[in-house]
Amino acid sequence: MTTVDPDGGAALNAPVAPPAPAADDRLSLSHYIYSTVRERIILGQYPQGSRLPEQRIGEELNVSRVPLREAVPWLERDGFVHSRPRRGAVVTGWDAKTIDDLFDVRLSLEAGAARYAARQVSLGGPMDALNRTLDEAQRTVAGGDAYAIARTSTAFHEAVVQTSSNELMVRLMQSISGRITWLFFLTSGLPADEAFHDHVLLRDAIASGNERVAESVAYAHIERDRQPTHLAMRDRMDA
């Protein structure tokens, strides 16, 4: 970079410091770390109850510990890790209460969202998100990939909430959707075709515009899986 001598002399060639990393770039890196670590937790690469291996993650992703530690609070917020004194971040474990807590929240949130989604559709609101995610879910069920099925099943439930047009409900759903995917994956032995059939029924109930029917179908669909989920998780839960 060329600068002018303040005394009016010849131009000076001053060295230029490299630009600092943009805040957006560092945020994007932390989001990448968050999504990668979250996926590895879901897939069991970082087991429940184990200490999050910061050094190993940093080496595998070729990142420093700074963006990694920025991602940890997001993982904790979304229920994937919790901090323990002198142990750092520890991967969350599932037990009977955490399963019931998630089901209870889903019943309160998603059944209400289905009701309001039907209302929006009756007023001319779009069904695009529901139809698109249902089509994608059908393809993944046919493919048999457990993780893909878990993700597309969650995406359908997110689409129900999105169709409600309630922004607060959408934000609340975002905070639990990762845990829903995690539990869906851990219980992938449950019949995926039955869940897909329920999704078709729920889509049709919302399309009818009948709020009470949509709400009751959503409630029945979620609650029906509670006991089978507990049974499927018997060998995966903390004592």
TrEMBL record:
Entries under Gene3D superfamilies matching the protein: GntR ligand-binding domain-like, Winged helix-like DNA-binding domain superfamily/Winged helix DNA-binding domain
Keyword rRNA-binding in record: no
Name by which UniProt lists this protein: GntR family transcriptional regulator
InterPro entries in UniProt: GntR_C (IPR011711), TF_FadR/GntR_C (IPR008920), Tscrpt_reg_HTH_GntR (IPR000524), WH-like_DNA-bd_sf (IPR036388), WH_DNA-bd_sf (IPR036390)
Domain HTH gntR-type: 27-94
Protein's UniProt keywords contain Lipoprotein: no
CDD domains referenced in this protein's UniProt entry, alphabetically: WHTH_GntR
Keyword line: DNA-binding, Transcription, Transcription regulation
PROSITE patterns in the cross-refs: HTH_GNTR
